[in-house]
Amino acid sequence: MAPWNKLPKDLQKAILTLIVLYGSTSVSCRLGPVICDPPPPPSVTPMICDPPPPPTTAPKPTATPTVTPMICDPPPPPSVTPMICDPPPPPPSGGESRPDSQDRLPLAEIRAVDIVWEDGLTFGAETPWPGARYRWSASGGTLSASGERVVWQPPAEPGRYLLQVVADWGQAGLAVDALTLVVEKDGSVTIC
Amino acid sequence: MLDVLLVGAEELENLGTRYLAAVLRQHGYSVELAPFSTANDMDAVVRQAQRIRPRLVGLSIIFQYRAPEFLALASELRRLLPETHITAGGHFPTFAASQLLRDYPALDSVVRGEGELTLLELVQKLDSPQDWPTVLGLSFRRDGQVVENPPRPLIADLDSLPFPARDTPPQHHLGIGFSPIVGSRGCYRDCAFCSIRSFYGASRGKVQRFRSVPNLVDEMEMLYHTFGVRFFIFNDDEWFPAGRGRLARVTALDSELKRRGLDVIMSIKCRADDVAEDLFRRLLDMGVVRAYVGVESGSDHSLQTLNKRTTVAQNRRALEVLHKVGMLADFGLIFFDPESTVEDIRANLDFFHDMAGEGQAPLSFGRMEVYAGTPILDRLRREGRLTGNYLAWNYTIPDPRVEMLFRLMIATMRHRHYDNDGLAKQCSIAYYELMMYRYLLGEQADPALSEQLRRIVARVNNHSLAMLEEMFDFTLHENIYDANRVNDQAAAWASRVNLFDLQVQAKLLDWKAQVARGVQMET
Q1: I need a surface site. Which of A106, A115, B163, B392 has the fewest CB within 10 A?
Q2: Is A45's CB within 8 Å of B436's CB?
Q3: pLDDT, tens digit, for every residue of B268-326?
């Protein structure tokens, strides 16, 4: 399979559209971490927000001979507390701040990391915050990781496997993302 | 050239933009809708705007957290369409009109409060800015200064509004059409975290208003026959009127639906003190299969902070009544608020165990966020406790153990509970599927499928509760200032959550396949 940057722009766009429409987590951050800033914490304000709607139907996935961002599940429903893309930096005026008496507590900022499919069975960790230490793990198969990039060697046994990355910034924060990888009987792999 | 392009989130049909479009079209203006559900839709919206070159673009900003995306869109539209008037409306712009016009030159005006009549008048006077000071409810910029016109009185008679413009057909699942609808506007209470009261209360008129039952059922009947809608999702701020008006409204709706032979199912939102057994038995009989009850907390102390004007005893009783009558009793907890204590957390955990431990509904919980226009924002500002800015206020919880629990929860359970494809959201969707399945199959519905789903949801709920309990215990007994220890522990918890979800997702997919097969065989 051709490296991502060698793919025609139209194909790149089509794949990204697929990911946007049916992708799993933090779609917008996957597409451009530069537009994503520290996410807000989730909230529950049920009386103002709408309930999650019934599901919508999604095209059935088809078996794929190679690794492609095919989707096993229906497209995501709307969210009442979306956590996907987040406020940009504060505007030039109108701010307030005060010294935080709990500055010493770890996980000081809410941060995010996203696993992005790069090519073949190579995945990367994307985050707008520099300086993370990455820890990759998988529930099956083997991994060869180097910092923010990992290559997964799937197991022979068909099934659903988890690929996970932990991005650790020490005192400043920690974020986790995971992907489900499905190994079919014919050995092909689908990313959920 | 088109007159107006209305931009808003399109998760379910956006009724806000559809009401605006209907009123504008009623007066002869041409309108298109543009979906802007995530930042990734920006290019499509820009292309649509460039194609139709509208005289006015209206940005419907419902949720504050998305304001930055809408403001970025406004800047791009301003650059490409310098002649187009760009306005914004909705809860957040209403309360932040002067700051937005001060800080974002891409915006020409803000429509405050209920938008239908203000936007119409703005469009009518678009080419005569000298008349803008007469447009009630409008804020705009003149000579570099922000002008805030007096508020427009509320629309007293909601029946005077046309039905929302259903430009896109309602969605279908398992062959059933489902659609959002509103029968009222406003709420009769004044919760500290909610902006509904302030949104309508700034204008003259009764805050909570109802469409007449015949008018409401006219729209339901149209959707039923034209689009095959059978599942109506009521998005009213508060479905019931206060006091004795509840029974009268339910009785009238019941009669009207029966008279017209509309066999439908419905989902509503209400307060815990709306719930009474007789009333909800009747609602179930007439097709209300789900009620989202705004219980908000399992702690009386927190309910006071939130000014909910209910008690935990009332909350428990409300959910128990719904369980007893057999209606899906959905609810969420504001697990953390600016005054949360260790005792409040304990009470919330107990409440969850009792009310969702058997899978009665998927767990939903989070922190109280500080939104524009809410009483809690004013209070925290007075107390000097806010950080951030008007686009995204923040605060810390005074007790560091509780603050730490909140941070751990976000770091470890975010995907399960807050992502669109997270397991908790999938469980919630599965309950909707179950309601549709039961509607379709009636007495032929396999009760084993209900039981299977309940067990799956119970597993997920109890796993989340066990994780929360562990984290809570950690914050109470470990050194929460040791970043290495905290991060290692958080990573381990997150792994457990993700591995658990991997297994349960597979079971949920099996369950969905069984439901689909059941429906296919029946139909």
Answers
A1: B163
A2: no
A3: 999 999 999 999 999 999 999 999 999 999 999 999 999 999 999 999 999 999 999 99
| Substitution target from B100, B404, B420 for chain A, most A beta carbons within 10 A | B420
Q: Which amino acid is at B446?
A: D
pTM reported for the whole predicted model: 0.86
How many C-beta atoms lie closer than 10 Å to residue B521's C-beta? 9
Mean pLDDT, residues B58-76: 95
In order, the DSSP letters of B441-477 are HGGGS-HHHHHHHHHHHHHHHHHHHHHHHHHHHHHHH
Q: Provide the token pair at B156.
A: 């007293």
Q: Which of B64, B421, B432 to mutate to test the interface with A (most CBs of A within 10 A)?
A: B421
Q: Using an 8 Å Cβ cutoff, are B394 and A71 in contact?
A: no
CB B78 within 8 A of CB B106: yes
The sign of the dihedral angle between the CA atoms of B84, A89, B95, A78 is positive
Query: In the numeric block, which tokens belong to residue B293?
Result: 């009850």
* Distance separating the N- and C-terminal Cα atoms of chain A: 19
Residue A15, beta-bridge partner list: none
Report CB contact under 8 Å: A46, B364.
yes
Closest by Cβ to B505, choosing from A101, A166, A180? A180
SS3 A81: coil
First CA to last CA distance, chain B: 47
From residue B72, give the alpha-carbon distance in Å to each of B41, B42, B56, B104, B333: 12, 9, 17, 9, 32
Residue B491 backbone zone (phi > 0: left; psi -120 to 50: alpha; other: beta):
alpha
